[in-house]
Amino acid sequence: MRPHEFQAPPRGTVNLDHVGYYVPRMDAAADMLERLGFTLTPFSAHVHRLASDAPLQSAGTGNRCVMFRTGYLEIVTPTGDTSMAEQLRIAMDRYVGLHLIAFGTAAPDLDHARLTEAGYAPLAPVALQREIDTPEGTDTVRFTVVRVPPGVMPEGRIQFCRQDTPQLIWQERWLDHRNQAEGLTGALLCVDDPRAVAERYGRFCGIPPRGMDGGWRIETARGALTIFDPAACRRTFGVPPPTLPWIAGPVLTTRSMEAARAGCAAAGVPMRDLAGDRLLIELPPQVGGLLVFEDGTRRPMALA
Question: CA angle 242-244-246, nearest 5°?
């Protein structure tokens, strides 16, 4: 199977599709990620329809992505004076780094119904699109997003995303990285009350949370959220959270831990070993937060 053919989870389940960084300067963030050994897609401006029969309009934001064999990182920056761009700027006033978690879905209608029944008052599904380069020329990426009102999920923009044109997103030419990264397998959340937050995410995703030493996990069909408090953050990662709540960073698999280390060394980025043959990176302020590499054995991450 080609990579785009196995991204969507089975109908009625969700996975970890992508996570998104909010950055003030795309050029600085992209330069740092490339120095770390990642391949980035070209810049693309976002447009959207606020209703199915409404005209397309600029969202005032744009992105570049780091695509993996499974999942991806989205790097988003404001480009205009729209409400969407203002949301990014307000979020970046708290911290620069991860602010978006998109759960992959094949059935946004089922997710919308579940959220409604659980009292989340979801907004109407939104059709988003952006232009993208392909070997044959410019084409249009389309996806459907289900969101909840601001503040309902205070950790950030937490949403469901159905990729309607995955063959355009997962192009082979963007899937190889010098650091040998190949998959998004997790996201790290630091909060004041891990159990309450885990229970809320469990209802949001329709997945019972699982307790673990030092925190909680939400295991999706592919990828997991690890939820912990500031004390566990300091013990495990050696850093205090800059604020709460904090989406601390992603967990990525790599085919070569040596290549991941080489990328960090070349970029001059601090790194240190974690338990379970994992590598922790403290990303510079151009990108923000933490990043964990693991070797792909899929052993659950342990908290100290």
Answer: 75
The Cα 16–Cα 71 span in angstroms is 7
**Residue 14 shares a structural domain with residue 142:** yes
CATH number at residue 57: 3.10.180.10
- DSSP-assigned letter for residue 234: H
Asked if 165 contacts 142 with a C-beta cutoff of 8 angstroms, the reply is yes
How many domains in the chain? 2
Burial class of 119 by CB neighbour count within 10 A (0 to 12, 13 to 18, 19+): exposed
Residue 213 placed within a domain: yes
Q: 304 lies in a domain?
A: no
pLDDT tens-digit readout, 231-282: 999 999 999 999 999 999 999 999 999 999 999 999 999 999 998 889 999 9
Please check whether residue 245 lies inside any domain of the structure. yes
- Residue whose C-alpha is closest to residue 84's, from 61, 52, 62: 61
* Tens digit of each residue's pLDDT (9 = 90 or more) over 181-205: 999 999 999 999 999 999 999 999 9
User: For residue 286, what are the domain limits?
Assistant: 181-294
154 and 225: one domain?
no
In one letter, which amino acid is 60? G
Question: Counting Cβ atoms within 10 Å, is residue 259 exposed (0-12), middle (13-18) or buried (19+)?
Answer: middle
pTM tops 0.85: yes
Integer Cα distance of 304 and 301 in angstroms: 10
